[in-house]
Design goal:
10-stranded antiparallel β-sheet, 24 strands, Ammonium transporter fold, 20 helices, alpha+beta, 5 domains
Length: about 725
């Protein structure tokens, strides 16, 4: 791209996003529509555009954060300031001088609020606009060349002057339309957000809002309706909502706390209703106070309410009254909900420190949590593990000697990294059938993994402990052997997690991070509790799979399609400022974010064109186990936003805060494994399916070939696309 074209692209992006950011969006079509609406009053629209271009230009010149400029963060407050001043004063050289100065001041105020509120992880919203326009309005009273605008006084004359008789007739038609007052006021309140005080502007904004986000539109109606109902109930003057356009504060607040800063849900809608009286009181109170100096309230109630709400949410210790805050902002209530909820389910155990099974090979849970013998009351969260043969027996021969038991003297490993806190290693092993009640736990090791997490391994073989108290151990390191000491009639390994470092401490209900379960069908379980009689083992990652899905920032991956379905191109592996890794398609700009822990590879989020090859790779490798078992099938669920808009998706968007009925399915299995001189060769088969009420709306099948420790090809099969893509890593 040439330098002038690149500059124009940046100016366009930063400008359009400045408009759409007023509604917490980055949708370019919505931004263009809002720009058109702002020019219903040509002078005001021009003043708003000039103001935001001035602010963005200064931001570029000062070398401010490029991403923030392109996102419109530094332009939308100056846009609102320009629109407000454009309606307040008649155009002229002196006015534009004041406008440019106010735009620059708005940027400086924006930076000040950004620095101040970012310390508390709070947004600055439209506070810079408020401060700047109030200061400019007060200052203009001392400037004799500033002539007040007449658009709010001689409305029809102004419209005739700026649009002619046709525009006047359109304005009068919308003014005379016999719709209920509630509906007309709602649309006028939407228009007032962009200083357009008529019905047609509100209709266009409502249409754009519905196109951008069904949830945001529903929230806007909910916020306004709750305000309308409160005003009726309390006996307030409804003309305040109709002519003072106080309603837009309720609308913006509803969108902000209902679906932008908080994940949309029944709880967020409830909070929208609950804060309505507070917004009304703030509006009425500050209207009286600011009326003394003849200043409008503008968006002050919205700012105060949202900041108070977000700040209050930071003091929660438990989310007994939700909603949940948005962890990663996608600038769409739907995406915030779908991706947030999907990630919450897929990675709900991310806060757990990973703990593995403390042994090699396949063992059986002889006694689980809430056991029938000893795992009861405050010690109920524990496991007893043994080794069994195909017949389910724990020993060979008659089982008269401890050495007859398959698990006796087998290695015991550290379940996680940590420091050895306590050791007992001098208690004799019992003959089968006998127990030592005096030394209940037998030979034991306690390991400290974190401040409030310890593991305890008991009934170990006498003299088998290979570590010393105070030493550091690594996950999987052999630390002892299974025995039959203490209250143990037959050889087994007792394993529990606890919050204190003492032998005999109460147990914690804490999951094992990853393991294979050999009950039919074989399953890979993540952060679950092994159950009684379940046969389990740790994961044994396949080096070829680990290397194939070990994408490194800076790595380039070239690809070419057999039949030209996708033009030849290159992917590049990158990482953002928050160390989130992603693969980016250089030709389309699409991005697929991923994470891996050495035993599982996950795609976490996709953004960009659904015509890109990267989109289909995201679908094909959504969740890839780094382990092999011929009967292992991996399943997962995509967020509803992974597929295009359809009639079902539109309905889902509307009811999504309350119920999800679209749950696209993902399935993967390793269908073939071969050994050759270059290492193992794997063929992975995966599929994704979107069906609603028995109707298949979308579906794909994929085949991935892993050879020579890298991804070699992906075959895509669907009704429209059938091709094989080959890869070359640089």
């Amino acid at each position: 791209m040439s330098e002038p074209a690149g500059l124009l692209s940046k100016v366009y992006t930063s400008t359009v996003n400045s408009y759409t950011m007023v509604f917490f969006s980055k949708n370019p079509w919505f931004g263009l529509l809002l720009m058109v609406v702002s020019f219903f009053d040509v002078y005001a629209g021009a003043a708003g555009l000039l103001s935001l271009l001035t602010a963005n230009g200064l931001a570029w010149g000062l070398g401010l954060n490029r991403r923030n400029i392109l996102s419109g963060f530094y332009g939308f407050n100056s846009l609102l300031t320009g629109l407000g001043l454009g309606l307040s004063f008649q155009p002229g050289p002196e006015f534009y001088l004041l406008l440019v100065a106010t735009a620059l001041a708005t940027l400086f105020i924006t930076l000040a609020f950004e620095g101040l509120l970012s310390k508390y992880a709070l947004p600055y919203l439209t506070l810079p606009f408020l401060i700047a326009i109030w200061i400019a309005t007060l200052a203009a009273r001392n400037y004799s060349t500033m002539i007040p605008g007449e658009s709010g006084i001689y409305t029809l004359s102004t419209i005739y002057e700026r649009g002619g008789p046709l525009v006047v007739r359109i304005y009068e038609w919308f003014g005379d339309v016999s719709w209920p007052l509630f509906i007309k006021t709602y649309f006028k309140s939407l228009g007032a957000i962009f200083f357009q005080y008529h019905l047609f502007a509100g209709l266009l904004i409502a249409a754009g809002l519905l196109f951008y986000s069904r949830i945001a539109f529903l929230l806007s109606v909910t916020g306004f309706a709750s305000a309308w109902g409160f005003y009726l109930l309390i006996g307030a003057n409804m003309n305040e909502l109709n002519y003072g356009f106080i309603g837009f504060n309720h609308i913006l607040t509803a969108i902000a706390i209902g679906g932008f800063f908080m994940i949309a849900s029944g709880w967020s809608f409830l909070w929208v209703i609950l804060v309505t009286p507070i917004i009304s009181m703030i509006t009425a109170g500050f209207a009286e106070l600011l009326g003394i100096i003849q200043l409008p309230v503008y968006s002050l109630p919205f700012n105060l309410m949202v900041l108070l709400f977000l700040y209050a949410m930071k003091f929660r210790e438990k989310m007994q009254m939700k909603p949940e805050p948005v962890a990663v902002q996608h600038y769409s209530p739907e995406l915030n909900l779908y991706i947030g909820q999907n990630s919450g389910e897929r990675f709900r155990n991310k806060s757990y420190l990973p703990v593995s099974l403390p042994f090699f090979g396949v063992w059986t849970v002889n006694q689980g949590h809430n056991g029938e013998f000893t795992h009861q009351e405050e010690w109920r969260h524990a496991w007893d593990f043994v080794i069994t043969d195909e017949a389910g027996k724990e020993f060979s021969g008659e089982g008269a000697k401890v050495s007859d038991y398959y698990c006796f003297d087998k290695p015991v490993t550290a379940p996680a990294n940590g420091w050895v806190e306590e050791i007992v290693d001098s208690i004799d092993d019992n003959p089968p059938g006998e127990i030592n009640l005096g030394r209940n736990w037998g030979n034991t090791i306690i390991i400290r993994h974190s401040e409030r997490l310890y593991s305890k391994l008991s009934h170990l073989k006498k003299g088998s402990i290979k570590v010393k108290q105070g030493s550091y151990v690594h996950q999987g390191q052999v630390i002892a052997s299974c025995g039959n000491s203490g209250r143990s009639p037959y050889p087994h390994l007792h394993f529990q997690l606890q919050s204190t470092p003492h032998i005999g401490s109460a147990t914690l209900n804490y999951p094992v991070s990853q393991y294979l379960s050999y009950q039919e069908p074989v399953q890979l379980k993540l952060y679950e509790i092994p159950l009684k009689n379940e046969q389990v083992s740790n994961l044994a990652p396949e080096p070829a799979l680990v290397k194939a899905f070990h994408f490194i920032p800076g790595q380039n991956i070239e690809y070419s399609s057999d039949n030209g379905t996708f033009p030849d191109g290159t992917w590049k592996v990158n990482a953002d400022l928050y160390k989130n890794q992603f693969i980016e398609d250089s030709s389309t700009g699409a991005k697929a974010y991923f994470t891996t822990d050495g035993s599982m590879f996950f795609f976490t989020h996709y953004e960009g064109s659904r015509d890109s090859l990267l989109y289909f790779f995201y679908l094909s490798a959504y969740k890839v186990p780094m382990v092999y078992h011929r009967d292992l099938v991996t399943r997962d669920t995509f967020p509803p936003s992974s597929f295009g808009i359809s009639w079902a998706r539109v309905i889902q968007d509307i009811v999504a805060p309350f119920y999800l009925f679209i749950k696209p399915e993902y399935k993967m299995a390793i269908t073939e494994r071969q050994e050759d001189l270059a290492g193992n060769r794997f063929q992975l088969g995966s599929s994704c399916k979107l069906s609603v009420a028995g109707l298949n709306l979308a579906g794909y099948r994929f085949s991935l070939i892993i050879a020579e420790n890298r991804l070699q090809s992906v075959s895509i099969g669907s009704g429209k696309i059938n091709t094989t893509v080959h890869f070359k890593n640089n």
